[in-house]
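User: Second chain of the day. Same drill as before.
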Amino acid sequence: MPLPQLDNTIPKYYMTIPTTKEEVKFRPFLVGEQKTLLVAFESKDERQILTSMLDCLSNCVPNVNLKTLSTFDVDYMFTKVRAKSVGETTNVVHSCRECTTENKITLNLDDIKVDTSGFNDKTIVDISNDISIELQYPSYMDVIKNESFYDDKANQADVLMSSIKTVMKSVRTQDENILIKDEPKEEVDKFINSLTNAQLEKITSFAQNAPALTHTHTYECVKCKTENEVTFRGLQDFF
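Assistant: Same format as last time:
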């Protein structure tokens, strides 16, 4: 006799995507999806972790194209789905600023927000009188496709170059709007290498000030009783 079919794949909850303000329905992770995520996290392989996270979220949040959303929007969605899946709290460890004792801290996932104070999805920076660059917040698909982020042999310069390419959407001249994704790697590298430090700073500043999951928490050290205030930023700080 076949086992009964469960209806746990039906979305039951609502959340609002931070930057698009779109309200979407979602469901918790199922046991099979949690197992997939656990295996990915245990592998320590960042590409496998991100791919598994996107695959599982796609199942839980139908009718949303996660491949085009910014990384911080997806991070926020992950915390919401996880909260309904395995509990609304997460435990992290932080070292006391005074005695360096490690303290176990319990955070409420519902308190974690995306800091969108500097959000600007139409950022265009001028680098000369007739050339400008349109910048973009990268998606996780952009990150996954970027080989340098996963190459153990890549040096700091390679990673920096890859990061710059990820946030550059197009180069605008008086006559053209040239999409970076359509240009050969050699041409893009040549363009970036021709920038001055001041011009490059405009691009890196955009990347460094991108919105992110943020939460500030205060706790008393279990050993020396010193009050600590710590700000967690980015998905990796919470899990």
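The first strand starts at residue 13 and ends at 16.

User: Great, on to the next one.
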